[in-house]
Amino acid sequence: MKTTIRHTVLGAIAVSALLVAGSSAAEKNVHAGRASVYKNLDENSLENITTPQQIKNINPNNVAPTEIWRRLEHGEKVECLSCIPIVSKLLFDGNSKTREISAWWLRRRIFGVFGPGQVYSQTLKDAQDQSLSEQKRAYATEALGEFLASPGVPVLAKVATTDSSAMVRKAAVHGLWRINSQGPAGELGKAMSDTDEGVRLEALYAATRVNVFTDVAAVVGRVSDESPLVRKRAAEALGKMRATDAVVGLIALTSKNTEADATVRAAAVAALGRIGDQAAKDAVQAAQQDSNQFVRDAAQIALRQF
Length: 306
What we know:
Layout: H1 5-21, H2 23-38, H3 52-56, H4 65-73, H5 84-89, H6 96-106, H7 119-128, H8 134-147, H9 152-162, H10 166-179, H11 187-190, H12 197-207, H13 216-220, H14 228-241, H15 247-252, H16 262-275, H17 281-286, H18 293-303
Helix pairs in contact: 1-2, 4-6, 6-8, 7-8, 8-9, 8-10, 9-10, 10-12, 12-14, 14-16, 16-18
């Protein structure tokens, strides 16, 4: 289920030609377009078991999510323009797995998905349309991330920091992670200061998975967050980043005098072990006397890493 941005670019080029040629030409050229997507893949590695009619017959009201997943996954190579409107509706299904597999299937369609007025451009609009329900905006935003297409980055970045709904902002942050972007103006880092705990947690999670993320200072800032869950995740993130600039802040989280939550203390001790800065060794050694067993265990493990 892997794809590349190159595939999407090819799709945008192909669909521009399609819109000029008309729908009848589209049907004639579908096979050529699909061949462009898969030209570098072994023919035997692609699924072409599901029939177009089986995809057209998908109805979430009487087809189980696992069956929807099976049909679309096994229809990876199905040539069916008329299936696209059916599957596009599934982007707004209540089941997250159905939404995921639908976006996966759609992002493999060159024709009818990525051109002006097609599924992708409509999804871009839906993600920003404040007249829609927060749930529909969140699902549209989620789909942009799953499409893995770079034109969605500016929209996801904007939504992540400006939408009125925390649900939608969180979906946008998740989408930035899926596309592997911190946003054109570092919106992923800005989301770490969101008023909603869930958005802050999602942003910290994303920061360790976006390999171009650079705003370590935003992560450091969360070690003093009012939420222990956020402090814990910030400590974990800083450990994964081997952030030496965070050592002083993490040391402050290792003591019961300055951090009441044992899970945060344990995460901070573990992070210091991963960073391995000798300046933190005394604090980690002191954590061996902590009243909480998990903190003491984390300290023992961390000391082996210095």
